[in-house]
Specification:
Length: 158
């Protein structure tokens, strides 16, 4: 449950940042409007996006997946129609807004692990490529020399 709340907040942050970056997306009610917009957008993505992806699969295949951007834009416009204080001025702003919201959400959610807590993984690779080794021998050596660290808080890494 904690993970859903954190991801909801990251989507809220992405909507607020996008409203500052694009002139055609407005969050008039401040954080509360963005919070409700993120909730509605999350619900619309959970309920309608899979159905729309399946229904538009032929055109999505023909466009190599680019039609998914249109679906995301339509869902963003639907969210703006449902939430007072969250406005999208037009279709092209919805396209660019959905791209920016997706990129920012992906970036912020990359710091949220599967348990829903915020963490950062840092990999340290010791070792260099040796000319006499094959690629698989190099990968085995790198796997032996890799230290996988996770920040446990209070400047403690394990």
């Amino acid at each position: 449950m904690n993970g859903i709340f954190i991801r909801w907040l990251t989507l809220t942050g992405a909507i607020i940042i996008t409203s500052y970056l694009l002139d055609g997306i407005h969050v008039r009610g401040g954080f509360i409007s963005a919070l409700f917009a993120a909730a509605v957008l999350g619900i619309l993505n959970a309920l309608f996006r899979p159905i729309l992806i399946i229904l538009t699969l032929p055109i999505n295949i023909l466009t190599l997946g680019f039609f998914t951007f249109v679906i995301n834009a339509l869902l963003l416009q639907m969210a703006s129609a449902l939430i007072k204080g969250f406005d999208v001025d037009g279709f092209w702003y919805a396209i660019f807004g959905s791209l920016i919201i997706s990129a920012i959400s992906w970036l912020l959610n990359s710091f949220v692990n599967e348990r829903g807590s915020v963490s950062y993984h840092y990999r340290v690779h010791r070792g260099t490529r040796h000319p006499g080794r094959t690629g698989s021998q190099d990968r085995q050596q790198i796997d032996k020399d890799t230290i996988d660290l996770e920040n446990k808080g209070d400047d403690r890494w394990e």
